[in-house]
Amino acid sequence: MSAACRCGGEHKGRCHNSASARKRARAISAREENDRFLLSADMPGVEVSGTFLRRITLPVTAQAEAIKARYANGVLEIDIPKQARVETKRIPVTVN
Fold first, then answer.
1. Strand, coil or helix: what is 21?
2. Burial of 18 (0-12, 13-18, 19+ CB in 10 A)
3. Which fold has domain 27-84?
4. How far is CA 57 from CA 17, 25, 33, 54, 80, in A?
5. Which of 4, 22, 51, 63 has the lowest CB atom count within 10 Å?
6. What do you get for the CA distance between the two ends of the chain, in Å?
7. Residue 40 to residue 10: CA distance in whole angstroms
8. What per-residue string of b and e applies to 56-79 under the rule 16 or more CB within 10 Å gives b?
9. What sections of 1-96 are H helices per DSSP?
10. Taking residues 54-61, what's their average pLDDT?
């Protein structure tokens, strides 16, 4: 049986936008360095083979194909390298 929810969706179980769902959402800390972005989330009690979903929009400068993630001691760390910065180049213009 589905029921209309305050978020506007119809759910058979718990709403993704409910107060309890927001409490379960893990806080993620983010830090930007010159050559990368670093994300980390405390995830105590999460099994390595478990499932965790959190969507994050990456900046244009991120190298999505080179992202690395590791989980140890209840902490998920995500390393997102930045693309090499393109330097501007001055080109002299000769005026006749």
1. helix
2. middle
3. Immunoglobulin-like (2.60.40)
4. 19, 17, 17, 10, 12
5. 51
6. 80
7. 32
8. eeeeeebeeeeeeeebeeeebebe
9. 19-24
10. 88
Side-chain half-sphere exposure of 86, counting CA atoms within 13 A: 4
- pTM score, two decimals? 0.61
Q: Quote the percentage of the chain above a pLDDT of 90.
A: 40
**Averaged pLDDT of the chain:** 78
SS3 18: coil
Q: Is residue 88 classed as helix, strand or coil in its secondary structure?
A: coil
* Predicted confidence band of residue 32 (pLDDT cuts 50, 70, 90): very high
Which amino acid would we find at residue 73? N
What lies within 8 Å, CB to CB, of 58 at 6+ separation is: 37, 64, 80
